[in-house]
Write a structure and sequence with these properties.
Length: about 425
Amino acid sequence: MKNRILRRVPVSKMTTVLVLFILILFFCPGFAAAQADNSRAEDTLVFRAAVFGPADEIFIWWGHTALIIEDTAGGEPRIFDWGIFSYSGDNFLREFIRDRVRYKCGVYPARADIDMYIGEDRDITLYTLDLDSDAKRAILAAAETNVLPENSYYIYNQFSDNCATRIRDLIDMGTGGQLKSHFSRIPGRGTYRRHILRFVKDRPFAESFLDLITGRSADVEISMWEEMFLPVELGRNLTGFSYTGGDGTVRNLVTDIEIIHVSRTRNAVPSFPRPLWPRNLAAGTGIVLLLLLFEIFGKKQPVSGRFFRGIIQSLLGLFLGAAGTALVFTVFFSGKDYMQWNINILYINPLLLAAVPLGICSGMGGLPGKFPRAEKLLRILWTYVFIAGIVSLLLNVHPAVYQENQAVLAFVLPPAFVLSSVPVFIRKKAGKNRQE
């Protein structure tokens, strides 16, 4: 049977088949060897997530993350950094709020960067990642594409698109989406607001200012996946996570944790923020006690007592009015979504700057013929502040408009109440009831 089939095949076709067969035998071993070499080359790549602790500058208060890729077969380790930025002005905070800071990805020798961070006395921890060859190839290609001039710049967002989330997303891609699938289902330890405040506990003014200008979109409960906008949370959550690789084996994502440097001058970041309302309530109550003190003093020295009471209102109006001006700017002109829809603007806004001249005029009102209506106008102003504060407090009952502004209200409401027309109304009402 075989002989008959062979005799039916023309000689030219037999030659073609033999040539193809020889070519296959010749090239397949080489092709297989090349594939093996590529696989071996990828196996020499080591990926590490580098987590750097906070520093003194405002743009590093929350730490930093970068991706280190090393070829153990040779070559210097490279660090891919999505935290490179530039701005034209001389004040980072102002330019950042105005949305004029440009962020980009860059690649640099890893050793030089690490030495720089050690010189700044920052915590440095490296997390070695266990990734298969396909994942390494995909992450490396994405990282190298990101540093190209036409791709390097991106629109930065404090919570959803920063140096940590970029690396988190690359690692998630390397796990085939298993990282996000796992941590998206697990509730986090708080909200965006609480996370950013726990990093500024040693800076009371910045702590209060951030609490004021952060809008209600930062008060939703977030998952552990969303918590990884913070570098320290990225490192914490990667540790202990396991996933199924492309070959079907279960891998521990982090195989090694190397602590390069521990800061000697910086305090550890707490896991939760401290409550701000007790401090703010004490400050607001202190202003009330000062006002009552000058009211008592004014019974013996009316001119002096009225003067100091007016000065206190001027200073309070200056402080809250300046804060309100900054708040209006962040709400309407910053372009930051997490600074918009801020309920604090109802009772802290530039209108309070009117208390500055009115307080001075009220303080001089004890003199004959001097500004008799200033005190009345002040009472109207503080009544507005008190009522608007109460309204914002009541609005918080509804989840759709809830904002964690209790600390701000704890400072504003006590003095606003005392300076408003409400106590006068209560006293008149009580006196009328006694007469009846």
